[in-house]
Amino acid sequence: MSILVQDLRYASRKLARNPGFTFVAAATLALAIGATSAVFSIVNGVLLKPLPFHEPTQLVRVTSSGRTGRAAAMSALDFIDYRDQSRSFAGMAAITDGTMNLTTGGSEPARLSASWVGVRFFDLLGVLPELGRPFTAADEVKGSARVAILSDKIWRNRFRADRRIVGQTVSLDGNAYTVIGVAPAALNFPTRTDVWLPFKFESWMLDPGNRGAHFLNGIGRLKPGVTIETAKRDVSTISERLAAQFPESNTTFRGMVQPLTEYIVGDVEKALYTMFGAVAFVLLIACANIANLLLVRAAGRETEIAVRTALGAGRGRIVRQMVTESVLLSIVGAVAGTALAAWVVDAIVAFGPQGLPRLENIAIDGRVLGFSVVIAVLTGVLFGLVPAFHAARGELGQLLKEGARGSRGGRAAQRTRGLLVMSEMALAVILLTGAGLLIRSFVKLTRVDPGFRSEQLLKFSVSVPATKYPYDRDRTRFADGVMQKLSSLPGTQSVAVSFDRPLQRSGMLITFEVDGRPLSRVDSRPASAVHPAGSTYFTTLGIRLLRGRFYTKQEETFSVPPVLVVNETFARRYFPNEDALGKHITLGVDHDTAQSGTAVTTKGEIVGIVADVKQVGLEKPPAPDIYVPFGLFPLEEMNFFVRSTADATALASGVRARLREVDAALPIYDFSTMRQVVSESVSQPRFYMMLLSGFAGLALVLAALGIYGVISYSVSQRTRELGIRIALGATHDRVVRLVLSQGVALTTGGVAIGLLGAYWLTGLIAALLFDVTTSDPATFVGVAAILLGVAWLASYLPARRAARVDPVIAMRAE
Known about the structure:
Blueprint lengths: L1 H16 L1 H30 L10 E7 L10 H10 L3 E14 L7 E8 L3 H5 L5 E2 L14 E4 L1 H8 L9 E4 L2 E8 L12 E4 L18 E6 L5 H18 L1 H4 L3 E6 H6 L3 H31 L2 H9 L4 H37 L14 H27 L3 H5 L7 H39 L10 E7 L8 H16 L4 E7 L9 E7 L12 E7 L3 H5 L3 E4 L14 E5 H7 L9 E9 L6 E12 L14 E5 L7 E8 L3 H15 L6 E5 H8 L1 H35 L1 H9 L4 H30 L15 H26 L4 H7 L1
Helix pairs in contact: 1-11, 2-9, 2-11, 2-12, 3-6, 9-12, 9-14, 9-20, 11-12, 12-14, 14-20, 14-22, 14-23, 15-18, 20-22, 20-23, 21-24, 22-23
C-alpha cells in the first residue's frame, strides 16, 4: 500500500508539472468517457434496469397475433379461455386502455390516460398502492360501486398530495368515482397511466357473436419453474383448439405470449446497443490518442528512466509507475466526463425522442457511476501499458548516451504510433460511414410527402363522454357547434373534424365486402383502416383529389344515399383492373345511432379517390384507407383542425375560449401544429442520427489530432535529416511532399481498413435506415474523401513547418 501511495504522489507531481499535457489528455478523456457514460445511462435506464415489479422476469403479456403476425389484441371470450384453460400461469388479468375527462381538482378539466385492469392486476405485479388498497373481487362485479386508483403524478399535481384523497369522489367522464388508493410513483404501466379502474365484463363482451371483437390484452405471471417457451406452447395449443371450434372468428388469430420487459422496451434494444458500440469506438480512439501522447512524452523521459534503472528500479516497477500515472489521468478525465454525462442525460430526459420507452428511468445512478469508475481504470491501463512497456524496454547504456537517436526502441515507438493512428482512422471511418448513412436516411425521410399540407395547420383533440353524448346525433351536434365557433376566430380559413389524424399510429381496422362480389369467409375478408372525417377534412388538410369528388355536408346524414372516399392504395389494391368509382362497399361494423337499440351498418358508394396520406409514419408504406362521412360514424374521440393565418400560440387561447362556450367541462389535449406532429414523427430517427453524428464528429477530430501529433513529432525527430536535404538542394515543395507522403500512407491504410469494417458493420443499423442501403456508394466515397482531406490538412501543417527548417540551425542543434 505504501508503494501505491508513493506512486500516486509521484504521478500527481509529474502531471502537475506538465499542465498543458494534463489538460489536453484529461479533456480528451472527459469527452470520451462522458459520452460513453451518457450512452450507458440510456442503455441502463431503458434496457438493463429491472421493471419495478416483483420478479419481473416471470411477468408476460398475453394477447393475439393477427394476419401480419403482430399483436392484435384479443376478445373477452378468448381471454377467458386462455385464463381458464392454461396451466402455465399463476394468474392473469385483463387490460384495456383509453382516456377519461377529469373535472375534479384544479381550475381546468384534464384529460387522463386510463387503464381498465382485472382485479388481480396489482397482485400479479407485486405492487401495492402507497395509499389505500388495491382492487378486490367485489370491485369487478357488474353494478358495483365505481372505484378508481390514481397515479402518484395526478395525486401530487392535481390534488396537491392530499393524503385524505382516499375515500373522496372524483368526476371522470361525468360519473362519480370513489378513490380507493394512490399507486406508487414508479408504476406507470401499461401506458403511462393516470388512473386505473376495475375491468368489468359486460354482457355484450360475453355474447358468442362478439368473439371477433378484439380489444383486450392480458398480463400473466408464470408459475414457478415454468419457462416462457412452455407458456407459448400452452397458449398456442389453446388457440389452435379455439380456431377449430370457432373458425369464423379465430382462424387467422393465434395466442401470443411475450416477456413483459420485451413488450415495454419495444424495438429499441438493437439500436441502443449499436449506439453503445459506436461510443465505445470513440473511447478507443481517445485511448489511441492518449497513448500516442504518452509515447511522445516517454521519449522525453528517457534520461529519467535510465537513471531510475541505474539506481535499481526494475522494469516492472517502471511499468507500474507509468500505468499509475495513466490511471490517475484517466480518473481525472472520468470525473469531468461524469459531470458532462449528467448534463447530457438531463437534456435527453427533458427533450428525449417521442416514443423512447422508460425515458423517465434514465439517470446517473450508482450503476452508471460504477461503470464510469471501471471504464476509467480500464481506459487508463489500456492507453498506459503501451508507452510504459516501450519506456521500460530501452537499453540502459543507449539511454544514458546523449543523443542516442534512431535507436531500436525509438523506431519501435514510431511504428507503434503509426499503428495507433491507422487504428484511429479505421474506427473514425466506421463511425463516419454509419453517421453518413443515418444522415442520408433522415434527409430522405424528411423529404417524404406526408400527403397533406402541414403549414399553418393547427390541431387539437377532444373526447366527449358517452354519458353526456351517448348517440350519433349528440356527438354530431357537438362537433358542428365547435366548428362553427372555431370558424369565427380571426384568421381562420377552414375547420375540420375527424376521428383520428395523420401520423397518429392508430386507426380502426375493419373488414369489408364489395357489393356484387361473392361473400368470403369472415377470416379471409379484406380489411382497411377506416377514418370517419367531416366533409371539410380534405380541403382543410390539403389532401389532393385524384379522381371523382369529395362528399358534402349534406351527405353526412342518413337522409341521402351513403358515400365513401378511398385512397389511391385502396383503389389500386382492391380494384386493380377496374374503376373503383361507383363501387359499393359494406363495412363489417354496426353501431348505435339516434336512439338506444338502433344499429346501422356502415356502407356507401365510392365517389372519390384521394392521394395517399401517411397515417402511420413517414417511413411506412401507405395502407388502404376508407374515409367515412363523420356524421355517419361519429365516435367519442375527435380531432379538430384549424387552418389559419394567425400564429398558433396566439390561437390557442381563442380555441379554448370557443370550446368552453360549447362545453366548459371538456378538456383540450394534444394541442399542437401539424408541423410539430410531422417533426415528432421522426424524433427517434433524428435522435439516433444526431447521437451517431456526434460520435462521428468527435472521432474525426480525435483522428485528425492523432495524425497531426504523429507527423509533428516525426518532423521534430527528423530535423537534422530535413536540414541536410534542404542544404543539398531539396525544394520547398519536395520537402512538403516528403512529409505529406508519410501522413497519406498512414491515412490510406486506415481508411482502407475502415471501409472494409464499415461494409461489414453497417448491417447493424440497417433497421434504422430509410430508402438507403448499408452499402450506399455515395456515403462510402464521401467518407473516404472527408477522411483523406482532413488527414491531408493535419499533415500539411507540420509539413509546411518542415519545409522552413534552416539547415544551419538544424546542424547546430545536432
